[in-house]
Amino acid sequence: MSANQSPAGQQQTATYDSAFMKACRREPVPHTPVWFMRQAGRSLPEYHKARTGIPMLESCTRPELVAEITLQPVRRHKVDAAVYFSDIVVPLKAIGIDLDIKPGVGPVVANPIRTRADLAQLRDLTPEDVSYVTEAIGLLTAELGSTPLIGFAGAPFTLASYLIEGGPSRTYENAKAIMYGDPELWTDLLDRLADITSAFLKVQIEAGASAVQVFDSWAGALAPADYRRSVLPASAKVFQAVEGYGVPRIHFGVGTGELLGLMGEAGADVVGVDWRVPLDEAARRVGPGKALQGNLDPTVLFASTEAVETKTREVLDAAKGLEGHIFNLGHGVMPNTDPDSLTRLVEYVHTQTGR
């Protein structure tokens, strides 16, 4: 049990009454909390300076570097939550999968998993495999004080797609061929990945993460019936595995407008919404009992300040009446985003929603 928890599973740390945690619990907030996916890194010059000459996956295993990168946007933008700097393939690398993150390409897997024999590559993840995560989160929670830290992991479907395709894909033809043609292999693969994802999240929570987000980045490639039958059970297993910790659980995917209700069914407390669906409509699709997160189009930040404020106002107006709302982009911060535009956006949301 982490320092975040009481035996009843309720948060008792300084983060408990933060705006972010209150919004996750659908309680009244002093202002709408803001954080950004991919805020740790990418657009910040101090991030690029800190990571000079260090490959991505190696940077994820250096606790002091991870802590520094995670803290940079909190210092600069005054966001309401930090997000742990890592990558969704880190637990796969930690159990011995031969993969690398190639600049300009993304994760590339040397030996894709396409047969039952290939499942042998997937062993259980232990805390010792990712001891650097425990160390980094210890450093972070000591610095963050009342600011929550969000841990994260990749969802089983998205991890399976990387492992089967061997890298990024637009068609997911190999993954879908197994999903449709060998459902037993597919189910066994996602079940193993659900265990690995659950173990990775547990390490982060037990080290002190105040909330967790599961990224199903590629789930938008699925029809609702296929998601319900072939993906939802594994995602639900992940959310159930960490339910007892009492920390908020966020579920996010891209292009998942038709799946929002199903993603809520999987068990998260907060459903992330990309920029394609207005938040009031997303709330109708998700149904009651869930907070929502989102959902400014990341490309809006390349427009004028006036345009950013106009589009932000639209998001905030659509969020009026929601049970809980966390302001975010509808996907990650884009690499060429002006950091000052993010700082201004945080201040604008806080000012507009102050109560």
Q: What would you note in describing this structure?
A:
The protein is an alpha/beta fold and 355 residues long. 44% of the residues lie in helices and 10% in strands. The chain has 15 helices and 9 strands. Helix 14 (305-319) links the parallel strand 8 and strand 9 (325-326). The chain is globular, with a radius of gyration of 19 Å. It starts with 18 loop residues before the first helix and ends with a helix. Mean pLDDT is 95; it is low at 1-11.
Range of strand content: 5-15%
Major beta sheet, specifics?
7 strands, parallel
Question: What letter string, H or E per element, gives the SSE order?
Answer: HHHHEHEEHEHHHEHHEHEHEHEH
Report, as a whole number of angstroms, the end-to-end distance: 35 Å
Query: Based on DSSP secondary structure assignment, what is the total number of beta strands?
Result: 9
- Mean pLDDT over the residues: 95
**What does the radius of gyration come to?**
19 Å
Structural class: alpha/beta
In a few lines, what is going on in this structure?
Helix content is 44%, strand content 10%.
Features:
alpha/beta; 7-stranded parallel beta sheet; 9 strands; 44% helix; disordered N terminus
Architecture blueprint of SSEs:
Elements: H1 19-24, H2 45-50, H3 56-59, H4 63-77, E1 82-83, H5 90-94, E2 99-102, E3 106-109, H6 131-144, E4 149-154, H7 156-165, H8 173-181, H9 183-207, E5 211-216, H10 224-230, H11 232-242, E6 249-253, H12 260-265, E7 270-272, H13 279-286, E8 291-293, H14 305-319, E9 325-326, H15 339-353
Parallel strand pairs: 1-4, 4-5, 5-6, 6-7, 7-8, 8-9
Antiparallel strand pairs: 2-3
Helix pairs in contact: 4-6, 6-9, 7-8, 7-9, 8-9, 9-11, 14-15
